[in-house]
Amino acid sequence: MATSNTNNAAVVEIAQTAGQYTSSIVLQYETKFIDVKSILGLFTTLVANHNYELHVHGPDEEAAKAAVVAAFEKHGLSVKLADN
């Protein structure tokens, strides 16, 4: 287990929060795109000292954006919303 990975609680909470919405929620880091609803995808990618861009598209995207950004911020992770 890499010590640079953020804690398990953050990964699980972010994935569970994203899973409550039907919108597509994708995290971009450099050239990688990760489904935020995937615990494994988040766990292998999410580290505290990187900047991420969040892409949210779908019928409940405004609520999803607010909830997922709040979950990131709660755990001290930097994320910005992509321009749609």
UniProtKB/TrEMBL annotation:
InterPro entries: HPr-like (IPR000032), HPr-like_sf (IPR035895)
Nucleus listed as a keyword: no
Swiss-Prot/TrEMBL keywords: Sugar transport, Transport
Record protein name field: PTS sugar transporter
Span of domain HPr: 13-73
Organism: Paenibacillus bovis
